[in-house]
Each structure stands twice: as structure tokens, then as C-alpha cells.
Amino acid sequence: MKNGIVLTIVFILSGCGLQPSTSPNLDNIPMPAIWAGGQTITLQDGFYTKAAVPGSASTTNIQVTDYFASGTINDQQILAIILATTTGGSGRFYDLYLFNADNNSLSYADHTPLGDRIKISWVAITDNLVKVSLTSHREGTATSSKPNLPLVKSFIFANRKLSAPKQPKAATTKATPPPANLAGKI
After folding, report:
1. SS3 track for 73-91
2. Hey, what's the torsion of the CAs at 94, 161, 182, 93, to 10 degrees?
3. Rounded alpha-carbon distances, angstroms, from residue 150 to 78, 165, 168, 183
4. For residue 39, how many other CB atoms are within 10 A of its CB?
């Protein structure tokens, strides 16, 4: 009976999207940030905060999320993680960052924007691709409305560059269940 109770609790928690995870520590790793004027930043305790302009009350805030995956792409150990940025307005911008994970240390590899006011579901590294499941806005829908278009975006990482596959239909597909080997939050 005890096993049945434990399995039920695990099933309920996973169905709610609660998965025990700890985001990787990205502190003190230099990385460029679009939302910091293209400057190289470093995170402290998973955050970066700076006044939007000197003396301004508006701030740019960049933080690590719980959405990440690690795996191998073209024989390289890679960490893929989502960073979220607010800039004082109503938007929340999400970017996919990749880090080389060699010899138990991380170094910045590349990043790409994912969108504003989207909902991330999961990140995976599979079949030499980085995949991000998200819900975005349908064309013509205001970004202030709730995201309503489930997608899986796929990215290639080659020659230290992150890009969408050359075949547009392969780059974005309808949402699918997450791969079984997810490391981060779903």
C-alpha cells in the first residue's frame, strides 16, 4: 500500500509541472545580453540587475529560470538554459542560452531570443538538437493576451552558432510531450 501512495503522489506532482530541480549555477560566467545593450554581463546568485539608464528608476533584470537541459551535441557536452528578462515595461523576454560544459566548468557558447510574454514548458537536448516547447501568440493576437499557440522550436548548434534548421517546417512544430530524460522543470 505504501508504494501505491508514493507512486500516486509522484504522478500528481509531475502532472502539476512540479519536478524537483535546481538550476545550474551560471554565476560569474561572462555572457553577452541583448537586453543589457549587448554588453557582457555576469550573474550573481542567478540574477543581473542594472539601471536601464544611469539615474533611472527603471531597471533591466535578467535571471536564470528552472528550464534547462544538458546533453551532447556533436560530441560536445552542452547546457541549454532559458534566461528571462524584464526591462521596466510590461514584457518578459525569454532567451535560450547555450554553454559548453567541459571539465566540470561552463563557458558561454551562444544564445538566441525566444519571445516576449510566452510560456515555456520544457527544454531538451535530443538528436543533436536543442528543443524548446513553448506557448506563443498566434499571428494577429496581442502580446498582452494569454499565449495561445503551442510550439516546439528546434535549434542546431554547429561551429559555436545556434540556429534554426534550414528547413522552416522542421524548425517549429506543434507541441509534443516532453522527452523522458528532461533535467529541468516541466
Report:
1. ECCEEEEEEEEEEECCCCC
2. 0
3. 25, 19, 16, 21
4. 12
Query: Between vectors from CA 162 to CA 157 and to CA 165, what angle results, nearest 5°?
Result: 75
Give dist(CA 107, CA 99) in Å, integer. 5
Percentage of the chain with pLDDT > 90? 49
- C-beta separation of 62 from 41 below 8 A: yes
Q: 29-33, 53-57, 163-167: which has the highest mean pLDDT?
A: 29-33
Distance CA 142, CA 120 (A): 18
- pLDDT tens for each residue of 119-172: 999 999 999 999 999 999 888 888 788 888 999 999 999 988 999 887 654 455
> CA 50 → CA 2, 33, 94, 151, distances in Å?
51, 12, 18, 32
Q: Which cell numbers hold the place of 52? A: 536601464
